[in-house]
Please model this.
Amino acid sequence: MFFGSIPALVTPFSGGRVAEDTFGAFVEWQITEGSNALVPCGTTGESATLSRDEHREIVAHAVQIAKGRVPVIAGCGSYSTAAAIELIRAAADVGADAALVVVPYYNKPSQAGLLAHFTAVAEASPLPIVVYNVPSRTVADISVETLGNAVKHPRIVAIKDATGSLDRVSAQRLACGADFVQLSGNDDMALGFNAMGGTGCISVTANVAPKLCSDFQKATREGRWDEALKLQDRLFPLHKALFSDASPAPTKYALSRVRPGFPTEIRLPLVEASEASRRTVDAALDHAGLI
Model:
């Protein structure tokens, strides 16, 4: 259902407000450069700082610009099951194709709680659900066994796996079936992830290098592993540089370098990338041939 290079879109701000024109042009650029789907209002989109109205409008704008050319997977996670359902329904109302739902954070639910959460979300959702497992942010970690039980619900169709454990790909493939869609949540591990049965990456780096990331994913999909490895080597310093300070600050700085005029503004409690981070990003962009 979902494959290839899928940018977790940054949200551009100007004067404290969402820069809608900049966002629209950015979405169009992503599509023309070969991105295979779009994720607005994810972690990289600073979803934790968005109001409900902003969340709805950003998803709606992405859908309007995409015009059905690629799927729009709206970030709809929350530590509250009821709030996640509300976000999903709002995303469905404006035409999103699926919902990305993070493992509930902060309140540290048990595995039974996680299964109950995703089952309740799926039951109430008019959209297919992509589970997002990122224990470094949520503390809670949906186990392979729990995921295998959750995917018995037909609306749970995929996972964005940001555990950093490649063995999860094989374990989840056995637990959930070979047709269950597995997307990497770590750019730097996408080569190995796809070799083990993944179908793509929900990517931070694709914000900055959409064509290179798309070419990389296509090479893995077509079994051109030598070419994929060369692209991995070209992109690897950038994968790391974009986390040289709190994300997405380095990504917004990188975008200002490859798309002059792109705003680097970021919402508190995050701040713009440090000077050291900027130097690291500049070196990575030069290595990738992007500046």
User: Anything to note?
Assistant: The longest helix spans residues 225-241.
